[in-house]
Amino acid sequence: MPKDQGLMSWKELAPGMYILEPGNSAKFKTGDWRSHRPVLDKEKCIKCGQCYLLCPEPAYEPNEEGYYICNLYYCKGCGICAAICPKGAITMVLEEA
Amino acid sequence: MGKRVAKEVSIAVADAVAQCRVDVISAYPITPQTHIVEHLAELVNNGELDAEYIPVESEHAAMSACIGAAAAGARTFTSTSSQGLLFMYENLPIASAFRLPIVMVIANRSISAPISIWNDHSDVMTTRDFGWIQTFAENGQEAVDLVYHAYRVAEKCLLPVAVNLDGFIVTHVVEPIEMLDQELVDKYLPPLKMKYKLDPKKPITMGAIGVPEIYTEAKKALDEAVKASYKMVVQAWKEFEKISGRRYQPVETYRMEDAEVAMVIMGSLAETACNAVDELRAKGKKVGLIRFRLWRPFPMQDFLKAIGRVKALCVVDRAVSHASTGGPVGIEVRSALYQSNKRPRVVNFIAGLSGRDVTKDDFIELFERTFEAISKKPKFSYEIYGVKE
Amino acid sequence: MLVEIRIHGRGGQGGVTSAELIAISAIHQGKYAQAFPSFGPERRGAPVQAFARISDSRIRTREKIYNPDVILVLDASLPKIVKVTQGLNEDGIAILNTSYSEKEVREMLGGYKGKLALLDATKIALEVLGLPITNTTMLGAFIKATGLVDLEAMKDALRERFGRLADKNIAALERAIAETKIY
């Protein structure tokens, strides 16, 4: 029989199970769900930002040069960015075991 | 001492709510609750009460508005009856789980179908498991006092409170009521300050998902909070006694000394039942009466103490729990007894559905049938009383 | 002592208001009282009842009233369609708005032999208020016939309820006290 599957004691919960730390979902790592990782070819990229707009996490952020870079802490490897990219600049590459 | 007034109970209840300086009222009118919210709307409209009155399209929205307002730190009020309460249904457990000190007056009315606007307890009994504190008034004075008390308790315990009063037979009666002086109300109810609330300057999350790893703990925490509210309920009545001179306790008893048979009942019919007790006592019958003023948290120890050494309990329910083991109060009472060593016979009747009058003579008959049951075990686990065959 | 009162009127004639004014006056005098309508939907024009109880001690019942000590009939046409004396206590009193004689009223009530108080309230209401609304006028008959509430307490209650319209109602009530005949 599995026992004590809880995350924390009921006594430690804030009243009403409130979450008192704003934006704490940013801490939640989804990067380890990934089997494939997106790799960007800057030669082909036209900085259209569709990967940024359509990423469900959203893991993409623009850098100083205007390229959209995937944050692998969040990227689940769904491949939407690669599928949507009009220039075929993103390739999904198998993560090494 | 407060002012003794002659008022329709609904109006007095609304005045008491106004005295509690509510910030937000949101309600949808439904008989027999209507006069309460109409009068509050009037007070707001006349500028006599500085509050937001949010008229809504349904009771579902009324409770939603109260939840939102209370989450933002407002003192809130709503009131409803019957189908209105049922329409609020999915929001009621959220109010308690969010630990919001909402106060609601339920003008108790039977539920459809057949459609009926008259009084019984079948509306509120559907909500007994939601973690709301629930009290039942016997008369207008108590209805008003339970409103003051509800805010005190709600805000101390951070739990919603439902004050129940019988539709029409309490709500629509003009009777003498002593209102508390405003300064005493203010003393009893300091301004609401919530430690956690929805505030853009200090954001928090309410209503996060309860995954299997946390839901059980969340429910346990709420359960402990509702159980722990008992102390504050009693404490708030003690504080109330100091300012009003009126004494309230979770379980009320009437002539229970040496009683052999006790009636167990909630709400205003207890008044009529007391007359039956007096009449039977005058004939030498050892009868008494027990009334639950507090229904949630269930005052088990008070109840077990109140029954003394009775041989039988006549539990009069005002709602049907179809094809179960009894009416809601009957089930609760039997269950409480099982956890003690006391084993009086429990005879459970369901009476006064949809405002059908239960007279003193009816109560005498119920007592007599309970006396018979002491020696002869009844063949029913509950009986709907007064049915025309 | 507990006195129970049943008021007969038609929906919209102020029967409930009469019951409330009786209770309010009694409470203001320091007595205990209850007033309540016949619970249910409101139906203008239909025969309706309202109830009141007055007592020197706390009233502890939520029963309906089955055997009133006093019945007060606001509408002269009602006794023909409703048995207004139903359940009236033997030593109770029936107070009626009527232009008929005592003998005619007793016949109309099916040979009623108990106490009776009669007043042509419709006439007074039309003359004083300009409306055939008899509830406040009949309260005068009630005070005269029963003495259960004080005139002054009733006047205060009328002022509280009707504001600037109270004076006319008080005038009608006082005339009613003068003209009510008790048999």
| Tally of domains of chain C | 1
Q: What pattern of helices and strands is seen along the backbone of chain C?
A: EHEEEEHEHHHHE
Count of separate DSSP helical elements of chain A? 2
First-residue to last-residue Cα separation of chain A: 32 Å
Which bin fits the share of residues in helices of chain C? Answer: 25-40%
By CATH, the architecture of chain C is named 3-Layer(aba) Sandwich
- Report the top-level CATH class of the domain at 32-94 in chain A: Alpha Beta
The coarse silhouette of chain C is: globular
In spatial order, strands of the major sheet of chain A run 1-4
- The radius of gyration of chain A is 18 Å
Strand fraction of chain C: 15-25%
The mean pLDDT of chain C is 94
CATH topology of the domain at 32-94 in chain A: Alpha-Beta Plaits
Structural class by SSE content of chain A: alpha+beta
> Care to count the β-strands of chain A?
4
Shape of chain A: elongated
Q: What features would you describe in this structure?
A:
The complex is a heterotrimer of chains A (97), B (389) and C (183). By secondary structure, chain A is α+β, with helices and mostly antiparallel strands. Chain A contains 2 helices and 4 strands, in the order βαββαβ. Chain A has helices at 50-54, 80-84, and strands at residues 36-40, 60-62, 68-70, 90-94. In chain A, the strands form 2 sheets. Chain A has a two-stranded antiparallel sheet. A two-stranded antiparallel ribbon of chain A has the order 2-3. In chain A, strand 2 (60-62) and strand 3 (68-70) form a beta hairpin. The longest helix of chain A has 5 residues, at 50-54. The two termini of chain A are 32 Å apart. By secondary structure, chain B is of the alpha/beta class. Chain B folds into 2 domains: 3-244, Thiamin diphosphate (ThDP)-binding fold, Pyr/PP domains (Rossmann fold, 3-Layer(aba) Sandwich), CATH 3.40.50.970; 251-384, Rossmann fold. Chain B has helices spanning 9-19, 34-45, 59-71, 82-88, 92-97, 140-157, 182-188, 212-244, 269-282, 300-306, 328-338, 360-375; strands spanning 3-8, 24-27, 52-55, 76-80, 103-108, 133-136, 161-166, 174-179, 251-254, 261-265, 287-292, 294-296, 312-317, 345-350, 383-384. In chain B, strands 3-2-4-5-7-6-12 form a 7-stranded mixed sheet, sandwiched between helices. Chain B has a 6-stranded mixed sheet with strand order 9-11-10-13-14-15, with helices on both faces. The N and C termini of chain B lie far apart (52 Å). The model of chain B has no long low-confidence stretch (mean pLDDT 97). Chain C is α/β, with parallel strands linked by helices and 183 residues long. Chain C has one domain (3-182): 3-Layer(aba) Sandwich (Pyruvate-ferredoxin Oxidoreductase, domain 3), CATH 3.40.920. Chain C contains 6 helices and 7 strands; from the N terminus they run βαββββαβααααβ. Chain C has helices spanning 15-28, 102-108, 121-128, 135-146, 151-162, 166-179; strands at residues 3-10, 32-37, 47-55, 70-73, 93-97, 115-119, 181-182. Chain C has a 7-stranded mixed sheet with strand order 2-3-1-4-5-6-7, with helices on one face. In chain C, strand 5 (93-97), helix 2 (102-108) and strand 6 form a beta-alpha-beta unit. In chain C, helix 3 (121-128) runs antiparallel to helix 6 and helix 5 (151-162) packs antiparallel against helix 6 (166-179). The chains are: A alpha+beta (97), B alpha/beta (389), C alpha/beta (183). Chains in contact: A-B, B-C. At the A-B interface, loops of A face helix 8 of B.
